[in-house]
Amino acid sequence: MNKDLEKYAHIPLKQIQNRVWRTYEGGALIDRWKKTSPEVDGAMPEEWIMSTVTARGNNRPEDEGLSLIETEDGIIALKELINSNVELYLGKALADKFGTTGVLIKMLDSKERLTVQVHPDKDYARTVFNSEFGKTESWYVLNTREIDGEKPVVYMGFKKHVTREEWRLHFENQNIQGMLDCLHKIEVKPGDAFMIYGGVPHAIGSGCFLMEVQEPTDYTMRVEKTTPNGLTIGPELIHQGVGEEKMLECFHYDNYTLDEALEAWKITPEVLDSSKEFTLRTLFNKKHTNCFGLSELLLDGSHTIKGSSTFYAAVIYSGEGSMMCNDKEYTFSQGDEIFISAAISEITFVSKEPSKILLCYPPN
Question: Residue 38, preceding bond cis, omega within 30 degrees?
Fold first, then answer.
């Protein structure tokens, strides 16, 4: 244990911006959210939050994806702070079970459609990657834009007619339109929320700015060998080194009507608590998954969040104000990403202007 670093477990920790390279273009709406000018679409379309894992990809910086915290002792990786006393930062139950956060949060903005892909469920991840975590994830749509006249959509789940053999044939022939036609195409708007379980085929269309809360891995199996923008995808990003045959086994070949797909994966937020000063809504919780949780605090006044013997993150989507923690005051503003350790028993958020705060939680 590093006693010098343990002191940071008792204050809210703001993360430095953490943009990550991907195979698709986007990111202008992240710049807008961060109030950064100019707003630019490029090869860094994701912001990783509360990350203790690195991004996968050849010829990338060694520690790309790791969250960094600015402290009075300099810039320190969140992973290093946590490792100074895992139980203090994460809480005993999580420290004993995983020894790590167990969750990864991303802000994702797509100028182009992402490739059709799938993520491993826990069984596949354990068997193939020797990993405790798969990559079940969730999407909460925060903003949208039309790109080249195209309305924002997502794709998910196999339609009723799709067979394993048909899917393999489309992959072998790189029939991209054939693959897209196998999936349900769903128009989205701000406020929509979806669960994407391991094994479910999916793709995010252009013009979607969303928060993605997920298991903490970067395992992605892709069936397109060229992105919509013409970038060639190497084998390591197609099948993660396990081979094309094993990659195709990652998919769950279950079939759905559109109504069944929406029933299975589209989530309706529920109000947990409210007053004249706040509304607290749950989006993803133990009814949907034990891998993570997400709530939304709409604040026009003050609200105190009691600790629950585990850490969480507060992502300020809009607004500004202050936080009272251990008798000290800290400010927050739009674009802040704040790690709140298990050692903090309570924190009071007070808005200076109406605020939307996204509260992200580790495995239940």
Answer: yes
Q: Which CA distances in Å does 214 have to 130, 171, 198, 207, 355?
A: 18, 26, 10, 21, 24
Q: What is the pTM of this model?
A: 0.96
Tokens 């993605």, located at residue = 212
- Asked if residue 116 has pLDDT above 80, the reply is yes
Helices (H) and strands (E) in the chain, counts: 11, 22
Residue range 323-343, pLDDT digits in tens? 999 999 999 999 999 999 999
Within 13 Å, how many C-alpha atoms sit on residue 357's CB side?
Answer: 34
For 161, the token pair is 């007619």
Positive/negative CA dihedral, 328, 334, 339, 345: positive
Q: Name the strands in the sheet holding 183-187, side by side, starting at the edge strand that comes first in the sequence.
A: 183-187, 153-158, 202-204, 117-118, 221-222
**Using the 8-state DSSP alphabet, how is residue 277 labeled?**
S
pLDDT tens across 176-185, in order? 999 999 999 9
Judge contact between 52 and 67, C-beta under 8 A. Answer: yes
Residue 300 neighbours by CB under 8 Å, 6+ apart: 277, 278, 351, 354, 355
Q: Which two tokens stand for residue 72?
A: 């009075």
- Give the distance, in angstroms, between the CA of residue 111 and the centroid of all CA atoms in the same chain: 17
Structure tokens of 197? Answer: 């379980």
